[in-house]
Amino acid sequence: MSEEFKTFKTLLDCLRQKGMDLIRHTPNSEEKQAIQKSLRDVNQQWLSLQSLFVKRKDKLSEIEKLSRDFQRTAEDIQHWLESANASITTSNDSGLKEQMHVWGVSLK
27 pLDDT band (50/70/90 cuts)? Predict the structure, then answer.
């Protein structure tokens, strides 16, 4: 979990403790219920936030892997093209060179 979440969790734990203290020391049952509801709402939001964080972290990991795979494939294709271009450039087959020229493929 990121440092920001750890800091926020500390604040949330403090809020929960103060809420529980308020509930214990508040004689009015309506106020107790309102505090309990607020604490439930905050806890639910925290759980939702944690869940969303995990899902997005997993998604970012997946995207990072796909990006690495794409980069590797692009590099492989680049090496293959360079090798093919070198083979064509050194070839004595003028017909092949002419066809490459017709298709607009430049030989370096």
Answer: very high
